[in-house]
Amino acid sequence: MDDPLSHGSATGYDTVAMSRHGLSQILHFFRSRLSGGVLSFTMAVSVIVAMLLLMMILMAYYTRQERNIYRINSRLLDNLSSAQAWCLARGDQMDYGSYRSFDLFGRGIDSVAVGKFRWGLFDSYRLHAFHRVHEQRAAFLQGQIPSEEGLSTIYLEDNRGGLALAGDTKISGTVYLPQAGTRTTYIDRVGYMNEKMVYGEVRKSKDRIPKLEDWSLDDLEKEWKEMPQLQVTELEGDYSFLSDTLTVLRCGDYLLQDTLRGFAMIQSSGTVRIDTMAYTEDIIVLADEIEFLSGFRGQGQFFARDTIIVQGDVELDYPTVLYAENEKATATIVLKEKATVDGFLLIDGDRNNFRDRLIHLEEGSTVNGMIYANGFVSAHGKINGHVCTRAFLINTFSGVLENHLFNAQLSHELDSGFLMPGLWFADQQKGVVQWLY
After folding, report:
1. Tens digit of pLDDT for each residue in 110-133?
2. Residue 324: what are its φ and ψ, rounded to 5°?
3. Burial status of residue 236 (CB atoms within 10 A of its CB: 0-12, 13-18, 19 or more)
4. How far apart are CA 92 and CA 65, in angstroms?
5. Is 250 helix (H, G, I), strand (E, B) or coil?
6. How far out from the chain centre does Cα 30 lie?
7. What is d(CA 292, CA 272) in angstroms, rounded to the nearest whole number?
8. Which of 341, 373, 362, 344 has the alpha carbon at shortest distance from 407?
9. What is the C-alpha R_g of the chain?
10. pTM of the predicted model, to two decimals?
11. Quick count: other Cβ atoms within 10 Å of Cβ 90?
């Protein structure tokens, strides 16, 4: 008969052995899992470190590349400045429509090209600096500082006696007047109200105002036609001066209602009206008549064969050009009350029919700039700048009076950076009127 105690002891030993074996397997399982986790963790850390190192290498590479590109672009911009200085100093040697390429410093790494073109009344240039695949481009209008005569408030041709003043007329600055000088008078029973006749120096003028360059609107139009052109049926948006191609709209009567900027031109055989909601910048308009509707604001160069009318509350910014020309019929530029022009007003044509030309500034209008009139100026508004004219003219209840001023305000307080087209009373020193895009 089996011993129960012996049987029980054997069973206990087996249980303990089995427990030890199970614990050993569990420990082995966790050791294997831990070993695999450490390996995975080590691999993950290695990948991350490698990626960080790669990112650092790439960052250093691209930073070095950006620095090189920045240095190249800075050098190209410096070269554009050198090309600009060359144009201001020697651009007169170039013909319109021509290009010239040269190495700035003779080392073969600073190449530039310049092109000259006429944009309205201004000489203009395109600049191109390049180094291998890198390049920089720019374009600008060139102007000239006014000469001593151009800095005067008035230059009145000496062929019709002196200048008569009445009302609240005030003239400040240097003036060039006929030998007869100034005198006071009564207009519509109102005499001269100020203490001095001229608040500045009075000098003697010549018997002829200077003649503008020997060209006409026909000549300008011919030069524009020689440019590469793209003729379109609609104009709107921006047109870059860095392109050689001039975008042109040829039309009859036309109403401009949109934004129009840049290297673009409207050529009309009729009347161009520029709407209140329109905006223009740097464009050229050529038409028989041009009218700016009340409230418009913008700038550009505007050429008429007959009439330009600037309605009230219109603001035309520098360097706006208003130019009217006639050969047989009349030519007129009219600024209505509260109209403001910062720029240039010119009226010209055959010298013999100058009586058919008039620049008329209504009371309350303002010109900050320069006026040239191979004809008459009727100055009821305010002129801050320079007037060169054959004669002044006013229309009163008692009739039309030549070389009379009534309630006119004339001074010369333009900024020293004000530059003009080199057409009359211009110094040889040149500068950038504005950069074009």
Report:
1. 788 899 999 999 999 999 887 776
2. -125, 140
3. middle
4. 40
5. strand
6. 78
7. 9
8. 362
9. 39
10. 0.82
11. 11
